[in-house]
Amino acid sequence: MATAKVAALPLLVLLAAAMSLPPASSLAVTSTYVRPRPRATLSVLHGGDGQTPQQVHISAVGSDRMRVTWITDDDAPATVEYGTVSGQYPFSAAGSTTTYSYLLYHSGKIHDAVIGPLEPSTTYYYCCSNSTSRELSFRTPPASLPVKFVVVGDLGQTGWTESTLRHIADDDYDMLLLPGDLSYADFYQPRWDTYGRLVEPLASARPWMVTEGNHEVERIPLLHPQPFTAYNARWRMPHDAGASPSGSNLYYSFDVAGGAVHVIMLGSYTGYAAGTAQHRWLQADLAGINRGKTAFVVALVHAPWYNSNTAHRGEGDAMRAAMEELLYGTRVDAVFAGHVHAYERFARVYGSREDPCGPVHVTVGDGGNREGLAKRYVDPQPATSAFREASFGHGRLEVVNATHARWTWHRNDDDEAVVADQVWITSLASIPACNKKDSFTL
Ligand SMILES: *[C@@H]1O[C@H](CO)[C@@H](O)[C@H](O)[C@H]1NC(C)=O
Ligand SMILES: *[C@@H]1O[C@H](CO)[C@@H](O)[C@H](O)[C@H]1NC(C)=O
Ligand SMILES: [Fe+2]
After folding, report:
1. Burial 396-406 (b: 16+ CB within 10 A, else e)
2. Which of 139, 208, 243, 437, by CA, is between 20 and 30 Å from 202?
3. Where in the numbering of this chain does the Calcineurin-like phosphoesterase domain appear (predicted)?
4. Which residue ranges make up each domain of the chain?
5. Cα dist. 413→160, 198, 325, 389 in Å?
C-alpha cells in the first residue's frame, strides 16, 4: 500500500502540472491581481427642503434633445430652465410628474421634462422646478466622431461604487452606458432614492443611458405583481424617440455622433424569443442600419452571452440562441454585458467559436455593488476568453474615427484607476472580408 502511494504521488503532481498549463495556441489571460476587501453600503441623504430637486439625471432623446429627470419630496413645478451661460436661463420647458407606490412606500414626485433643441458639444446650465439655488450643468454629446463612452454595469451604492464613480469622473467622457443592475434596492425602495443622490453628480452632467438587469424587476407575487415599477418610473429612456421607437422602456436604441455609432439596449428580463415584440423590434432596428454610414454598432445586454466565470453560467444562453444570428448578420461590433461581478473580454465570437466577423463580447458587471465579486472562473480558460479578472472597475469605449475604437478597462486598484486591459476594435463595416455580398446584405 505504502509503496503504491509513493509511486502515485509524482505521477499526480505531473498530471496536475500538465492540466494547469494553458493550451499551446491560447493567449488567454487570467489576471492574478489580488483584490481588496468589499466595502459597506452608503446612504446618501437629502439636504434640501421638500421642493429642492434631488436625484437629477439626464438621458439623450434623439440627436438634439435631453430628458431631465428629478424628484422632489413635495409638489413642485415640472419645469426645467436652461441656457448656455451660468445664472441665465432664457429657455424653459415643462414636463410631467408621476409617482408610484410599492407596498408601504410612496415615492416622491418624479418629474421629467425634455429640453431642446440643443447644440452639440455644448455646456448647458439648468435648474429644475425653478430652483435657481441648485444650478446644474451638462454637456451635450458631439455631433460627429470622436466620441467617448463609459461602460459599467452592476453599479450598486457601496464604497466601491463611490471609488468607481470617482475614477469615471476623473477622466472626461460624453455618455455613460449601463448594462443593468443600478441601485440594488432589492425591494427596499428608499435605496432607489439614496442611489439617485449618489449618482447625481455624474448622471446630471452627462447622459446616462441604461437598460434593465434582474435587480430592476422587483416583482413580488401577489403583493406587487407588476415588474419594473421603480425602474420605469425613475429611469425613463428614449424608447419613443429616434428612427425605430420600441414602445418599451425595457429595450430601445439610439444614434450617437451624427449616426456614426448606433447603440442597441436589449432587455434580458422581458420576452426575447423569436416572435416576441422585442425580437421583432430588434429585426426592424437592425434592418434600418446602413453600415455604409454607421461605423460602429454596439449592443448592451444584462446577462452575458459569453462567460467563463462560475457565476451565472448559462443564464444568457437562451437569449443568445434567439438573437445572436441577428446581431452577427448586421456585423455588430461589440456586445457589453453585466450581471457577472467581474471583468472579462472575449475575442470576436459567433456560435461559441472565434469568428473574425463576430462581435467582441465584454462583461463589465464590476461597478461595485454590495454582493461583492465573482471570483471563481472555469478552468482551463476557454481559448475565446482573452482576459478575465474579478475586480471592481469600469470600461471606456472611445470611437476615434470611422474604422477604429479603443476599448480600455480600468480596475479600481485599491483607490487608483489602472488600465488593466486594452484593445483596438476595428469596425466590421470596414473589413472587406466581413462584407461580401453573399455573406449578408449591407
Ligand atoms: C420661477 O421663479 C421666478 C422668480 O422667483 C418667478 O418669477 C417665475 O414665475 C417662476 N416660474 C415658475 C414656472 O414657477
Ligand atoms: C483611425 O484611427 C486609427 C487609430 O488611431 C489610425 O491608425 C487610423 O489611421 C485612423 N484613420 C483615419 C482615416 O484617420
Ligand atoms: Fe444582475
Report:
1. bbbbeebebbe
2. 243
3. 148-343
4. 50-140, 141-434
5. 11, 21, 37, 12
Fold of 50-140: Immunoglobulin-like (2.60.40)
Query: Does the annotation count 167 as an active-site position?
Result: no
Q: What is the pTM of this model?
A: 0.92
C-alpha distance from residue 192 to each of 68, 82, 102 (Å)? 17, 27, 12
Asked if the domains 50-140 and 141-434 are classified in one and the same CATH topology, the answer is: no
Residue 437: band (very low, low, confident or very high) from pLDDT cuts 50, 70, 90: low
Question: Largest alpha-carbon pair distance within the chain?
Answer: 91
- Ligand 2: which of 147, 398, 400 to mutate, judged by most atoms within 8 Å of the beta carbon? 400
Among the bound ligands, name the one nearest to the CA of residue 295: 2
Ligand 1 closest atom vs CA 130? 1
| Residue minimizing CA distance to atom 2 of ligand 2 | 404
**pLDDT tens for each residue of 195-245:** 999 999 999 999 999 999 999 999 999 999 999 999 999 999 999 999 999
Looking from the CA of residue 400, the nearest atom of ligand 2 is 2
Q: For the domain 141-434, what is the CATH code? A: 3.60.21.10
Query: How many A from CA of 135 to the centre of ligand 1?
Result: 15
Give 79-125 pLDDT, tens digit per residue.
999 999 999 999 999 999 999 999 999 999 999 999 999 999 999 99
